[in-house]
Amino acid sequence: MYTIKEKQVLSDVTKLMVVEAPQIARKAKAGQFIIVLMDEHGERIPLTIADFDREAGTLTIIFQEVGKSTMQMGAMQVGDSFKTIVGPLGHPTEIENFGTVVCVGGGVGIAPVYPIARALKEAGNHVISIIGARTKDLLLWEDKMRAVSDELIVTTDDGSYGRKTLVTVPLKEILEAQPGKVAKIWAIGPAIMMKFVAATTKPFEVPTIVSLNTIMVDGTGMCGGCRVLMDEGAKFVCVDGPEFDAHKVDWNSLLSRLSYYRSEEQVAVERWRDGHKCNLDRAVEGVK
Amino acid sequence: MTELTKKERMKISRQDMPVQEPDARVRNFSEVALGFTMELARLEAERCLQCKEPHCMEGCPVEVTIPEFIEAVRVGDMAKAVEIMKSKNNLPAICGRVCPQEVQCESRCILGKKGQAVAIGRIERFVGDYELAHNTCAISREPSTGKKVAVVGSGPAGLTCAVDLGRMGHDVTIYESLHTPGGVLVYGIPEFRLPKAVIRSEIDTAAKALGIRILSDYVIGRTLTIDELMTEHDAIFLGTGAGLPMFMRIPGINLNGVMSSNEFLTRVNLMRGYQFPEYDTPVKVGKKVAVVGAGNVAMDSARCAMRLQSLRSQANGESGTEVHIVYRRSPAEVPARREEVHHAEEEGVIFDFLTNPIEILGNENGAVRAIRCIRMELGEPDQSGRRSPVPIKGSEFEMEVDQVIMALGTSPNPLVFVNADGLERSRHGTVIANQETGRTTMQGVWAGGDVVTGAATVISAMGAGKRAAADIDKYLKGEITW
């Protein structure tokens, strides 16, 4: 079970995998997430569902190699399997015909924004999408996003592709150009991007939804590690979210909590890299 | 062996179980209590007076025929002891370790009136461990009834219910949300109190013998819902426990370093965080840790923190670490087992009674630097009969800590109730179920354990699982109607 059926290398550090998980695929909806565990020694990692195929019984996940676990996951090949995939977790996105909506995706956040944009389009919305990345190589799914959007704007931080700017700039232009026209906005990406999207849309009072990816263990409400401070008190991202009203999130608390295990992450990454170097050395020795 | 007279038996003193010494055990996660040897078990068994009307059994939620198994141990017939035990209790190696025997069977023991009760729990554990090591007893299964039962949750309630139903010949599937079966036994109770290998082998043995399917990674309410389970099963038992942690409603709970005991213990136990980086899940321990609460979970958290600190000091020479239990009531109201409190004290945990945190203070990096507390005094008894703590005006003070673990109790996880509208719950979120039968307000659905009672003990959950299994069996065989 949970076998990798397909793998695509989207960039040096971004991988796509299609994984067998029929009991989750039959239930999955846009906006939900899963938890994966590679093996007995692994950690439980929350990942947003980028796509699903109910008939084939598969889920698509896209992840960036940022720590030891995601690096190890990136090294997995077609035919390998995960020990555990749990889901679908969290509440699905509330989809209806709102009129004109904007979907903002940053970096690997483009992946989870895709099924939301698709569902919104299918529900009859006029979908404007803004996707951005640091550089051209890290941009993904432009074609897929174009296919489900009425308008698509692409940005890169370094100007290597599309507009050289941040996603918040075209977003602000849209809101200024036609005041009152945009009914709702979704933004998924790095926490810092979502924080600035929230700050951009707040003066316009347009409802803005973000999907939070906090530190979690079980993903079912048990540990409370994922709690986020909202105007009305603490909420659990895993069972109350993952989508929240961007204007009510305490972003500074969220960013601070995301950094809690940074030193342990570094230890793990260094250990992983060392392990790999040793393997490589051994392989070279073997050839000699 | 010559038979001892009653007088001679009464001269034998209660046998202590060998334990790892405090200064040694605090440096490892291995089991603290090492278990009786055969000699010790038989000697302790000699103490039992074999009462004609034994009161000890009245104190056992699963009605183990205590004098009978003790007699079998006394004469050294271990196969028989196992058989007697397993006819009532399928998980003796677990119960022998975590049951609060001092308030159950042992509290009723006639010897305890004047002296010390028979160490029933220690003998029980010996029987359980003997079985795990020797596999003397084949668990038998009645002919298949063809009835399908879904058991949701693989903690003590679910496991017990599943095993009993399996024996009765029903086809049982257990749905577990985590990646390993065992529920709170695995994520909550630390290795040094209940080794994972013991749980694993108790579960594997029973599941294999009874053809019980265990589907891990199934979150009922998400992967499948109760109404979907209904379409494929003849009965459902909910043993989903009380997994939702409570946090104090005080300022500062979202600072880095503040966590639930559930998170801390899950990282340590289920994910083996104490073996990071060999295992991928990290767990942090502060230099000065405050555990808020004084139940068994608080003791487990404090003792895990002590071990993590001493592992770290072995590595980097750190000194001056402290773990505090911060409790708003007095020692007399401590809900944890005496033995657990005693072990924690021996290991160096500091107890701050009549102390209540009112604010968690952070530093410029958003991490905990202290808790602001207020001293309490005992006032009038409250609803629970315990004298309720009242703040002493002007007694606020700061306690310097860099980690706060909240062990304030848990409530049922509402996730499981998605699409189960007929299932009534109390305002505390617990499922309303008949105490004797476990029947809920939804036809075909039974419930038991913490999901019904709120956080309680392993054995009371097992008792509820057992009673529900008996009722489900009669219902499925058409002997009774809903």
Gross geometry of chain A? globular
Overall pLDDT of chain A, averaged? 93
Strand segment tally of chain A: 16
Low-confidence residue ranges of chain A: none
Helix content of chain B: 25-40%
Q: Please state how the strands of the largest beta sheet of chain B are arranged side by side.
A: 3-2-1-4-16
Helix content of chain A: 25-40%
Count of separate DSSP helical elements of chain B: 18
- Which geometry of chain B do the CA atoms define? globular
User: How can the largest sheet of chain A be summarized?
Assistant: 7 strands, mixed
Distance between the termini of chain B: 54 Å
Oligomeric state as shown: heterodimer
Overview of the structural elements:
The complex is a heterodimer of chains A (288) and B (482). Chain A is an alpha/beta fold. Chain A contains nine helices and 16 strands. Chain A has helices at 22-25, 68-74, 110-122, 142-147, 168-177, 191-201, 237-240, 251-258, 262-287; strands at residues 4-9, 14-20, 33-37, 45-48, 51-53, 58-64, 84-89, 100-106, 126-133, 151-156, 163-164, 182-188, 208-211, 227-230, 233-236, 243-245. In chain A, the strands form four sheets. A seven-stranded mixed β-sheet of chain A has the order 11-10-9-8-12-13-16, sandwiched between helices. A four-stranded antiparallel β-sheet of chain A has the order 1-2-6-5. In chain A, helix 2 packs parallel to helix 9 and helix 5 runs parallel beside helix 6 (191-201). The longest helix of chain A is centred in the last third of the chain and has 26 residues, at 262-287. The termini of chain A are far apart. The model of chain A has no long low-confidence stretch (mean pLDDT 93). Chain B is an alpha/beta fold and 482 residues long. Chain B has 18 helices and 16 strands. In chain B, the strands form four sheets. Chain B has a five-stranded parallel β-sheet with strand order 3-2-1-4-16, sandwiched between helices. Chain B has a five-stranded parallel β-sheet with strand order 6-14-7-8-9. In chain B, strands 10, 11, 12 and 13 form a four-stranded antiparallel β-sheet that branches. In chain B, strand 11 and strand 12 form a beta hairpin. Chain B is globular, with a radius of gyration of 23 Å.
